[in-house]
Structure formats: structure tokens, C-alpha cells
Amino acid sequence: xxxxxxxxxxxxxxxxxxxxxxxxxxxxxxxxxxxxxxxxxxxxxxxxxxxxxxxxxxxxxxxxxxxxxxxxxxxxxxxxxxxxxxxxxxxxxxxxxxxxxxxxxxxxxxxxxxxxxxxxxxxxxxxxxxxxxxxxxxxxxxxxxxxxxxxxxxxxxxxxxxxxxxxxxxxxxxxxxxxxxxxxxxxxxxxxxxxxxxxxxxxxxxxxxxxxxxxxxxxxxxxxxxxxxxxxxxxxxxxxxxxxxxxxxxxxxxxxxxxxxxxxxxxxxxxxxxxxxxxxxxxxxxxxxxxxxxxxxxxxxxxxxxxxxxxxxxxxxxxxxxxxxxxxxxxxxxxxxxxxxxxxxxxxxxxxxxxxxxxxxxxxxxxxxxxxxx
Amino acid sequence: xxxxxxxxxxxxxxxxxxxxxxxxxxxxxxxxxxxxxxxxxxxxxxxxxxxxxxxxxxxxxxxxxxxxxxxxxxxxxxxxxxxxxxxxxxxxxxxxxxxxxxxxxxxxxxxxxxxxxx
Lengths: 374, 118
Prior knowledge:
Chain A is α/β, with parallel strands linked by helices.
């Protein structure tokens, strides 16, 4: 978390601990803090404040959007369109709806991880009630043509949700220009606290709440507000908006330096999604003749925290569904490595990774019975 | 995943890596699901394993267990070596989650296969 975020939250814990639903002055003060936070979050994605519903995180935002529409529109139809590379919060929610009698079309993606907007158009039926396509992918970082899909959804009069958890704060987001009806965001992805997020719900959208109770958040999401979390989220959103201009170009330059540094020193290495629009802060590498979990552990021992889509690191022992969807075999996914940067990453950090990773890969390749035989 | 120091040591500094040019037997086993692979070379003399070397591509547990098992083999008699189990290898390195034993400990299968002809 950013220090400013921690400071803003600390004030809530120590001084402004009122319940925002109470009418006494410290309750009302807490409410005004939430109102401020709502403005910052709304501004970050160019929404109206009344269109921001605070929830417990990206997963709840996705659930509220998808289940909320599925439930409110079920008399109109039971068909949902999504992609094969969605985050598990969308994927498993849609799978659950399939079990409840909804029909889901799982659109394929190109080798660079892109959904073809024409596929979306072709998949729309009379009973289609929702299209849910993520803005940017969490593993490969490819950015989908949301504006184009938004236009198609609007022409067909179908609700359009986009999971913007990865995109928000990394690239400019304008929910009006994107043409989305629902958009999920998460605080901790923009250096805010964990356990808080928001769903943008366009004015006039009919959504059945998943959480019922005291009618908080304009009846969209009941439950006493997580005031400290929301205040931290607001501060993080304010800083993220500044960061889009002040920091992200630098992050992109660092990411490019990392990729070119690694590609110049290591053979048999590829960047996934290289030919598609991508987020500035991630790189997903495919390393032949080495296995991802071993790379992750080796880097961890050198103080670098990264992740992999290799089956060997997942609880299910199956390779990443995203890498499978972009056409990678389990063998290829075996050697995948995802590195994420942030505004806090420095040039020294990048040079350190470019310095140690080639040796780590070479060592693992020396152990491989496949290496140098090809 | 929290690996033991011993396992990390065998991963970072694997023993018995390499090939044996005049090996008496070679075996390669792999896990088709995750892609891990281990290749094992042995020299056998008079019912005893004189020398063993391995190569592996896989996660840190796969590499560490392959190395540990190969080291263990040297000096053993063939009959005893055939009895080595996945659990025994995993336990010696501080243990692994059950699912991980199944997928990453290729060595016991490699040993059984390489000793088939003896």
C-alpha cells in the first residue's frame, strides 16, 4: 500500500470510527469520508458518484454484476456470453450459473489473447442477457477491444459487464467511452487495501442484489460500510489517477527494458501477447527447457517474487486456463513466468532481474534432458 | 509452498547430475499431465549399482527428489533399490503435499524402469 493510503486509513481507525449509517455527528463524519472516497473512485473511471457501489473486492463485484443481471433478467432470457480467459471470479460464477440452467457461450481468443469483437456479435441471441468480457487479462496482460464490444452490446440492447480489476489504474478507464453497464474494480490492485472494491453500475441498470439487509449503497449492497477500507480505496484511486500520467509511462519503459534485456541474453524465450495491446506493468514469458515453478523458487531465493502458469505450481496441477486458451500446450505452459511491475519498481530492480534470471534459466536448462538436443 | 531446507539444497545444488556414456541401462519417465521429466543412467555390477546419474526438467521438488534418489542408489543392491517408494524419497527431504508427491516424484518409477533388465 502507498503510505498516504495507510495514513488515511489510520485516521479512520483512531479518530473517525463512526458508523456511516448513524445520524450522530461522528457517524455523519464517516459518511462524508465515504462520499469523498466515492468521488475519487468515480473520477478514476469517469463515472457518476451514484454509480459506484462499494463491495468487498473484485470477486464480489464480478459476482454482483453477473448474478445480479442473471437474476434480474431471467424472464427475458438465460444466455450469457463470456471468454475463455476470464478471471476465476467470472469463470466460476458463469460455471455455477450453467448448473442453474443458464447457457454460457465461452468465446475463444487469438494466440495473443484477444477476443474477436465479431465473435461477440455472432454469439448474441434473442435470449442473451449479459456479455461479460474482461478489460485486461490478469496473466498475459492483453487489453480487449472493450469499446468495440460495448457498441455491439448496446446495439443489441444487451447488458455489458467488464472485469476491470487489472486495467484500472494501469491504463485510462472511461466507463462512458467504453460503453459498459457494469465494471468491476479492486482497491488492492491500485496500492489500496485488500478486502474492498467497487462495482460501477450505470444509472438505470436493473440489478438484483446478492447481499440483502439494511439497504446500504442505495439498496445495491447491504452491510455496514468498511469505512477504513473505503477511505483507503479512495486515496489509492486519487493517487492512481495521478499515476496514470506521472508513473505509468515510466513503468512501461521499465517493462520494455526488462523484456529487451532478457530477450537479448536468453535464447528460446518468448513474450506472450507480444503483438496485442498490453498493460504497461506486466510481462508473461515463455521459457523453453525450464519449468516455471523452479524458476519462481529460484528467483524467490534471490529476493524476487514472481508467478507462473505452470501446472506444477497450481493446487489443481493443471496448467493455466489462460495459457491453454491462447494455444499453449501443457509443455509450453510448464515454462511460463509472469513478472509484474509497479510504480514502486526501480531501474535497479529491473537490472537486478536481468542480471540473475539468465543464470537461473541456464542452470535449470543444464539439468534438462531435452536441452541442446534440439 | 514451504519446502524444507534440505529439499531446497538438493534443488539449488543437485548431486549426481549428468549422463553416463557407457551406462548399462537408461530410462526416461515423464508425467504427461504436467510435463515433468526425469532421465536416469546406471552402471550395474554383480547385482550392485556402481554409479547413477540423472537429468530432469520439472519443478523444484522434481529436481530435488530426482537428485536425492539418484544419490541414494549408488552402492545399493538392485533388489533393495526396486523397493524405494515415492513417499520414502519425499519424507527424506522433509515431506511434500500428497498431490505433489504423486506428480513430482518421478524417481521411484525411473528406478523400477531402469532396473528392469537386472
